[in-house]
Amino acid sequence: MDPATKMSGVDQSGARLRLVSDRAAGGTPGIQLSGVSKTYRSRDGDVPSLRPLDFHINAGEFFVVVGPSGCGKSTLLKMISGLLAPSSGEIFVEGEAVTRPHGNVGIVFQNSLLLPWRNILANVMLPIDMKRLPRDEYLPRAMELLKLVGLESFEKKLPWQLSGGMQQRASICRALVHDPKIMLMDEPFGALDAMTRERMNVELMRIQRETGKTVLLITHSIPEAVFLADRVLVMTERPGAIAAIYDVPLRRPRSLDAMAEPAFTELVQRIRKHFFTQSALD
Amino acid sequence: MAEPNGPGGVSKALNAAWVRPFLFLIFIVVAWDLTIRLFRIPPYQIPAPGDVVVVLWHDWPELMRQAWPTTYATICGFLLSAVFGIPVAMLIAGSKTVESYVYPLLVFSQSVPKIAIAPLFVVWFGFGIIPKVISAFLLGFFPVVVSAVQGFKSVDPDMVDLARAMQGSRFRVFCAVNLPHAMPAIFSGLKVSVTLAVVGAVVGEFVGSNSGIGYVLQRSIGTFDLPTMFAALVILALLGVVLFWIVDRIERLVIPWHVSQREEVIFAA
Q1: How do the pLDDT tens digits run along chain B, 269 residues long?
Q2: Inter-chain CB proximity A111 and B158 less than 8 Å
Q3: For chain A, which end, N or C, has fewer CB atoms within 10 Å of the first or last residue's CB respectively?
Q4: Which residue of B has its CA nearest to A83?
Q5: How far is A119 from chain B (nearest CA, A)?
Q6: Which residues of B touch A124 (CB under 8 A)?
Q7: Whether B253 contacts chain A with CB within 8 A
Q8: How far A54 CA sits from the closest chain B CA (Å)?
Q9: Which among A30, A34, A58 is positioned nearest to A181, based on CA atoms?
Q10: CB neighbours of A40 closer than 8 A, spacing ≥ 6?
Q11: Which domains does chain A have, with CATH numbers?
């Protein structure tokens, strides 16, 4: 990736990766959900969490889901990673049906969830241990990722010695170390202060561009969603369903100045209306 | 050089972990002695500290000889409660079914006074070491289980999900996430357990034994030899303290990331 392509303003890296994925996998690349719903069984009867969902996330796309609390966003994430079976419908990741944990995802939660007894490097290497991949091969990659997020001199530190933002960067490295096609992020910056959060958003976009991963990010913040996303999926209240999917008409690479553009504010307004009218009906 | 050294040295000496409790102990002994003198308490009710020290001095070899079987029974009982308690806690924390069957019974069994059933062990196993070990085990077992269950259950489910999503097998996830996470709780259970195991061993010796500190206690109470009885209590207290200290040291070795956060965890497979 030479600097010239990076500066061109077109999402070249994403486009290139899409092509690579097309050749590599037989089926559709990215994430495909067809008729996926989830109903939890409880003592008081069945509680629907997600109404049947149909959508497709392209390879290399930055896809953001925004919705009120309890609309089943985390359920969605667990189903895509294979931890939870949908009640109906099917999920395909890189063309393959998801029936159990497939390991082709990296997950970032709101809490960094670093193991306090492992140093940063060992924490980043956790997926390698879990997948029983050769440590020696992935150590340089882990170091490279730490360098990518600016933690290169902290690899021997324990998690508590780092600030919240740094911990979350480390957990992003952990999500990427085994080179998954997809990064799933469940309100990754929700626990950070507003300023760190903005900085992390810019950083995350850079990381996504440099690695070319498909990102599915869940958030409560509408501006954050619009700022980050190629497409924004708006969910309704429980049981969750798709209210709308919007293309974000902002050029990449984006800086924080993008938030001042009319296209940005207009889209934020439109998405906000979904929740406003909904709660007015309640 | 001498000036900054002086007060620094004193406060440093005062800061050593053993100094303050030791000072407090001296205070208690002095208060004890004064109380006896002031209120003229007869020696068959409470012995004077001086008499206890004399007994400790004179009968030290004999007391040490008797302390050995007690220590042995305590350690065996304690190890058994760790060896059985931790796996039982894993099962209880890991399975709702096991929990619903076993946990209530465990609590129920805990409320049975051990001293009441200790004679049964003598009937079953004779006057040897076994009744003491069982008694120590029964007292030490419960705190290990309760703490370890709490430790295993307090793991963040998201953390386990994360490791499972990386295709970690149940066993791998358990070793990498659940077990280390439960370690601090397990150790706090073990610390309670080790002191209770001392009590258990003495209970075992009370009901049927011809050796051990419990036996010395029983005998000296029978003959109103209060100084010996108090000397035996001192030995028991020392035993508890030493065993507790050993577990505490092991804890520091096993979970340095938790106790003293200064030490670095070595990056290892």
Answers
A1: 444 444 556 666 667 777 888 889 899 999 999 999 999 888 888 888 888 999 999 999 999 999 999 999 999 999 999 999 999 999 999 888 888 998 888 888 888 888 888 888 888 888 888 889 999 999 999 999 999 999 999 999 889 988 988 888 888 999 999 999 999 999 999 999 999 999 999 998 888 778 889 999 989 988 888 899 999 999 999 999 999 999 999 998 888 887 544 444 443 33
A2: yes
A3: C
A4: B165
A5: 7
A6: none
A7: no
A8: 23
A9: A30
A10: A46, A47, A49
A11: 3-104+180-281 (3.40.50.300)
The identity of residue B136, as a single letter, is A
Q: Are B158 and A158 inside 8 Å of each other by CB?
A: no
Q: Name the superfamily (CATH) of residues B51-254.
A: MetI-like (1.10.3720.10)
CA distance A187 to chain B (A): 13
* Tokens found for residue A135: 């440590």
Best of B159, B166, B174 to mutate (most A CBs within 10 Å, chain A): B166
Judging contacts by C-beta atoms under 8 Å, the chain B residues touching residue A191 are none
Q: HEC profile for chain A? A: CCHHHHHCCCCHHHHHHHHHHHHHCCCCCCEEEEEEEEEEEECCEEEEEEEEEEEEECCCCEEEEECCCCCCHHHHHHHHHCCCCCCEEEEEECCEECCCCCCCEEEECCCCCCCCCCCHHHHHCHHHHHHCCCHHHHHHHHHHHHHHCCCCCCCCCCHHHCCHHHHHHHHHHHHHCCCCCEEEEECCCCCCCHHHHHHHHHHHHHHHHHHCCEEEEEECCHHHHHHHCCEEEEECCCCECEEEEEECCCCCCCCHHHHHCHHHHHHHHHHHHHHHHHHHHC
Are A115 and B167 inside 8 Å of each other by CB? Answer: no
Contact B164 A83 (CB under 8 A): yes
Chain B hits for A117, Cβ within 8 Å? 180, 255, 257-258, 265
CA dist B58 → B50, B69, B220, B231, B238 (Å): 12, 20, 15, 11, 18
Give the start-to-end residue ranges of the domains of chain B: 1-41, 51-254
A78 close contact with B: CB closer than 8 A:
yes
Would you call B259 helix, strand, or coil by DSSP?
coil
- Dist. CA B70–CA B214, nearest whole Å: 8
Cross-chain residue pair A103–B166, CB shorter than 8 Å: yes
Given CB atoms, is A103 within the 8 Å cutoff of chain B? Answer: yes
Contacts for A152 with CB less than 8 Å, ≥ 6 apart: A143, A146
Measured CA to CA, the distance from residue A151 to residue A114 in angstroms comes to: 15
Interface of B with A in 120-159 (CB under 8 A): 156, 158-159
